[in-house]
Amino acid sequence: MSDPAFRRRAGATFRGIINDLKRTTEAAAADLGVAPDVLAAVIRGDRELPAELLRRAVEVWPVNERDFLPVHDDAPHGVRICRVAESVATSRIFQRGGADYYEYRDTAMSRLAMFRPEWIRMLQPVADNRPDNPAVQWNAGHFLYQFTYFVGAVNYYYAWAGRRFCVETVTGDSVAGLPYAPHSFAYRAGGSGLILALTYGGRLLGDAQHELAALGPDLAERYAPDDPGAGPDDHSAAAAALRQHLDDTMTPAARLAEASGVPAGRLADLLAGRAAAAPDELAALAAALRVPVRDLLPVSGDEENGVCQMPRSAAPVWSWPAEEPVAYRVRGLAGTLLCPNSRALELEVTGRDPAAATLRTGLHQYCFVLGPDPVRLCWESAGTVHEAILQPDDSLYVKPFVPHGFTRLEAGRSTVLALRIGGKVAGDTRREAAALGASSLRRLVSDTTQWYDPAGSR
């Protein structure tokens, strides 16, 4: 893929790597056995990094092949649209248990974000809601989180901790499920059903996943506490987090008690999980360990049996903006606290003024036009305003911070399903980005200069 913008990003990435390794262009060229002008051309973005150079770099430096390869930008104008005809062209039917079970269709995806959203039509009818119905074929669960939006008469089956469940759903119901939880779907006899299965990667996807794989299963599993705890009176997860910080900082319990002012006996109870730290104790312990208070808090979700369900009838609804003219009626959909940067929303498009309907988010966004009528999309990228008319079942991806909005056409009404996720610049990474500042971030993604000037600088 010969893309000048990709080559420029690759050049900046290469310069960053050799700067980190404290190699000038000439020193790096000597390590790799090539002329300096070859590397200079790579750094300028005038040529691609030859495969042989990549192989040699991995041999002589403590780096991985993927370190040199930037992400492809397949949404250079801020938005990537998948038309319904493109989606239909990806249709495939898979069997389970010797019978047709699902029809899958791809919808909008981008190399920039870990969305893997599928339109899935149920082909297996069921006559009851028993979770052990023999007509239901289960999967083994998968690594990606899944937000599911239901259309029609769909039975949702899921398993957790050895138990199986079945929920009868209707159009507009939604659910958020955790990785590796087995599940299945079927439509109720006499009706029809499909789902929008919007799977996406969390913070373990990508570099973290590769790091864990290299460590191997025996070491990887140590990142999870032996007993994650359950219920408000179980403090084992908080105790495990505190013990880990003692190990990481080589801090004896007696020293932490002295530095924090938490009595030794009380600290022993906290470390053993016999009690929970009060807010003032958490602040004192965090200050003594020089970590944020939130690093001492256990990971807590709000799932019940591995899922968060949101029936349409119970979903919160509000207007955006709150004052007139209202551009959207917003319905909050299912989500989990384990993915705090993920948000699923149903947008009933009510406005016709693009300026009043403009949305901005720092999250990656996937949208699917539920219909029943077409809707207008307007967005701005690099100072240019773009417009597209979207039909029902069209879908799209929107980059973070790209101003965009949906408006009604003259006659018609339409609803858009939106799922927003944090991507790689979320949580701690986003806090670090904010601390570095705008000028440092701009330099990070485009700098091709050496870390010092050979002519000297005073």
UniProtKB/TrEMBL annotation:
<protein>
    <submittedName>
        <fullName>XRE family transcriptional regulator</fullName>
    </submittedName>
</protein>
<dbReference type="GO" id="GO:0003677">
    <property type="term" value="F:DNA binding"/>
</dbReference>
<dbReference type="InterPro" id="IPR001387">
    <property type="entry name" value="Cro/C1-type_HTH"/>
</dbReference>
<feature type="domain" description="HTH cro/C1-type">
    <location>
        <begin position="256"/>
        <end position="296"/>
    </location>
</feature>
<dbReference type="InterPro" id="IPR014710">
    <property type="entry name" value="RmlC-like_jellyroll"/>
</dbReference>
<dbReference type="InterPro" id="IPR010982">
    <property type="entry name" value="Lambda_DNA-bd_dom_sf"/>
</dbReference>
